[in-house]
Please model this.
Amino acid sequence: MSKAIGIDTIRAALGRVKYPGYAADIVTLGMLEDVSATPEGNVGVTLRQATENEDVLRQVAQQIHHVLSHELGLDRVELKARRLEPELGEKTGRVHLEGTRHVIAVASGKGGVGKSTVAANIAVALRQLGFSVGLLDADIYGPSMAMMFGTGDARPKAADKTRFHPVEQYGIRLISMAFFLTDKAPVIWRGPMVMSAVRQFLKETVWGMQDFLVVDLPPGTGDAQLTLAQQVALDGAIIVTTPQDVAVLDAVRAIKMFHQVHCPILGIVENMSVFVCPDCGEEEEIFGRGGGERMASEEGARLLGRIPIYGEIRESGDRGMPIVLANPGHPASKAFIEIARQIAGQMPD
Ligand SMILES: Nc1ncnc2c1ncn2[C@@H]1O[C@H](COP(=O)(O)OP(=O)(O)O)[C@@H](O)[C@H]1O
Ligand SMILES: [Mg+2]
Model:
């Protein structure tokens, strides 16, 4: 190597290392703790290790070595990972939100079952029933609420040195990782840590007084979901499933997870239950039959409702206005309102 390569160049190259499975890079996600370089071309990179998943760590390490050696010609790279003290979970205690009366989580055993769609519509439905509502998108790696609520370029505004105001849309207070993964993010948010982002969302958002905070949890029943469920003082969980057997099995796992953290199950929403032919009105059971019902009775949980497959549900989600708002007279909207009514009815005063 003839010329020393500066730290900024190295940082910029590391900014092209994507976190496995996600669109965001390791710098944006705050994983990069330190970079050093000597004139001789010895580079030291220290990462904050936010996962125990060795596969993920190996992939990150490979990518780092790849960009540094192929793009910058740096071969003497010492990579260190600093294990984070678990910031989440029992150790730090639960986050209790002053001013929020009920915190409810929307969860699912697997992704793609319509969890975020259900969370968004329940939030809007609760609002329509006259409650004040916040919505926390805790799906750090796959945030969808900015899209579902069509918030465009809106960003949380700083309230003071560490706190920020949620983005308000359709009368709902929103916080989502999507607001922070851009260059328009408020400066008070420096390198959000994957592991503590949700905790920060909870604590550092100026929620004000509200009846409900709906939390859209990431899909799955792994450690991340468990720690999240533990650290948010939840009043109840709603489990979303499709009628398929596999989805139901995953949902049963999700129910067991909430039992483990002593969080009551408010009920099950069976999504994509049937396809109603827009022309003839005939119902077709695309994803199988009765899964939600069966699970509800086996697990002693109530079936809050069944939402059929409607093109309009997806279209309104993509357009940035949940169907409950976009078309309140739609059968799906009525079903969501009914689900919201049942949820509200189960809350202690
Ligand atoms: N009942 C439904 N009918 C039609 N499309 C739906 C329905 N529920 C969800 N979708 C669509 O399916 C996709 C996945 O839904 P989403 O809520 O993002 O799932 P998850 O949060 O579980 O990954 C989205 O495009 C959404 O609009
Ligand atoms: Mg989602």
